[in-house]
Amino acid sequence: MLAFLLNRLFHALLVVFVVSVLAFILGDVVGDPVASILGLDATPADRLALRTRLHLDEPAVLRYLYYVQNLLHGDLGVSYAAQRPVSALLAERIPATVELAAVALTLSLAIGVPLGVYAAVKRRQMLANALMTLSVLGVSLPTFVVGILLIFCFSLWLGWLPSFGRGEVVTIGFWTTGFLTPSGLKSLIMPALSLAIGQIALVARLSRAEMLNVLKSDYIRFARARGLKNRAVYFSHALRNTLIPIITVSGIQLGYLVAFAVVVEQVFQWPGMGLLFLQALGQTDLPVISAFLMVAALFFVGINLVVDLLYAVADPRLRIKTLSARS
Question: Does the model's pTM come out above 0.85?
Fold first, then answer.
């Protein structure tokens, strides 16, 4: 188990290193931060002084070492546009993005798994085939198109839900949440559903495929031979084994939802990390851009590492395979 842990930890650190290099390179190609901070009317002396203060006049390797040193000390820099620590800006935005991704993941499991199980159990019925056809549409539709359609239907046409913003939030310690206010819950519905549509379709198709595979297993045939009812076979035996890969994939998808909620946050003006990232791109705010990439990478790598460890605990064959590869 220790060898498996060290192997996965090495790969995680390698990914973080690569992302840090890409984030640093991106800072050099996005634009000139001096022009973004001082504007076009600044004097050459002011420009030179700022470039010196930001270490922009030093070699790229040395600037990368400064960058890594600051990261290791938890210093994400100061936003060029807001003139505030980037860590403070992210602390304000992370709760909104995490809540949005968590609700989207919950919806994908709560809706996708029952649909997939139904489509597998009733695979010869017309409704099951129609659900699978709709799932293809759900996977294919871009997230921003889904968001615009939801706004048109539930905000402009019916007037039931707000079209932008997070609503009223409540501060609990360092965390802000909209779960405890009516306006916060109403504001969360459309962004979460827009982000979850594609995941619902993916989970439904995965659940159907895994359920069909499990139903062909020998122990399911033995359960039927013992005279168990279909309900017991489906839900007590087949569904439990179907959920293992689904939960694993869902854990990985949570990282995708957090990292790629940018489009949804832009459509609904949801005050999360994604919207902050897009605003930073428009302002060439390099510290915010780099910090977003690093936080997203750490979140994604951390979730993958936890999923790998849990899967290794459940399936010892993965540990044996890792040891065999090392030997």
Answer: no
